[in-house]
Amino acid sequence: MTSTFVGRHFGLDTSGSGLYLAAWSDNEPEALRERVGRISDTAERIIAAVAASV
Q1: pTM of the model
Q2: Range of the structural domain that residue 20 is part of
Q3: In this structure, are residues 50 and 11 in contact, taking their beta carbons and an 8 Å threshold?
């Protein structure tokens, strides 16, 4: 999922990434919020690192 956020930021085709969300449909809301928060934080760090290197 992190790669989906990063890929979208940089304009890549991420159309096949929806399967991850479907797999999480049975998780508790708090677990989902925690997971998405970690993914978002990681994606932000990757995006910042790539942007700083170009």
Answers
A1: 0.78
A2: 2-53
A3: no
Distances, alpha carbon 17 to alpha carbons 1, 30, 49, in Å: 7, 22, 23
Q: What is the tally of helices (H) and strands (E) in the chain?
A: 3, 0
Give the count of beta carbons closer than 10 Å to the beta carbon of residue 53.
Answer: 6
Residue 23 confidence (pLDDT): 72
* Segments of the chain with pLDDT less than 50: none
Per-residue DSSP letter, 15: G
Alpha-carbon span 1 to 16, nearest angstrom:
11
Instruction: Report the domain count for the chain.
Output: 1
